[in-house]
Amino acid sequence: MTLLKDVESGLHEFLKNNSTRRVAFITSGGTQVPLEKNMVRFIDNFSMGTRGAVSAEFFLRGGYAVIFMHREDSLKPFSRRFNNLFDSLEIAGDEVVCQLPGLKEAVQDHRTYSDRIFYVSFKTLDQYMSSLEKVCNEVKHFGSLVLVYLAAAVSDFYVTQETMPTHKMSSDKDLSLRLSLAPKVIERVVNSYVPHAFVTSFKLETDEGKLIPKAAAALEKYKHQLVIANILESRKRRVVFVQRNADAEVITLSPEKLAQGAEIEELIIDRLTQLHEDFIAHNN
Ligand code: PAZ
């Protein structure tokens, strides 16, 4: 994991080199919640960081400088498709040969955009929260040119330091866990960390009936610009843009496009870029 002071100085330099660009600050992947101070067990979630990694690629293609704050070992832009690389390698004499479709282009893109993406990694909920604050502090002066894209699946519950056992919990009797409600960092992001940025949060549900009411309630509560609502099972083909004072906007990827390998993030980032442009025009 990158040390926070390295993040600060590296990010400072990165932003100086990209001072004429819009900045997309993406969070991606799930947070881990330790159950013991000397951690053996933890709570985690399903997120592999696909949404964040694919979105980063489209933000880069759209001209943004990208800060990619991701769960350690979750998917990263361009390399994300090649997790099974070893299965496709062949040995020809002294050479290792790989014929995977798209690999050469992905390596090229990775190089092309390397000066325009800055990586920050996290693992636990605590690390997520402190890195989020640090990054926000560094990008604050970009004002409305910053688009915050909170795609990470952040735990809503955690074990406080006071109630967390120091050592591995014994397994000779049933275990009752007391989980506390995690602070809602979006509140700090919107009101104190980057009050002039365009803030997009995601709302994930499994019950369709709760999706839009919960997204609308989050907007009402935190007063940020946009909630992108998605259902776990259909998240790769359907999302809903929910804004205050506007009708909900459904974005879908047709089954044909999906079968051809298209990704809904392209549509999401297209629309989001327009909304960000309008926001900048009205806030400068
Ligand atoms: O990581 P992934 O691509 O599998 O999933 C993306 C997602 C469902 C985590 C994201 O779209 C999302 O909804 N994030 C916010 C989750 C929440 O805290 O409500």
Automatic annotation (TrEMBL):
Superkingdom per UniProt: Eukaryota
Pfam families for the chain: DFP
Biological processes, Gene Ontology terms: coenzyme A biosynthetic process
InterPro entries reported in the protein's UniProt record: CoaB-like_sf (IPR035929), DNA/pantothenate-metab_flavo_C (IPR007085)
Molecular functions per Gene Ontology: catalytic activity
Family, per entry: Belongs to the PPC synthetase family.
Protein's UniProt name: DNA/pantothenate metabolism flavoprotein C-terminal domain-containing protein
Annotated source species: Caenorhabditis auriculariae
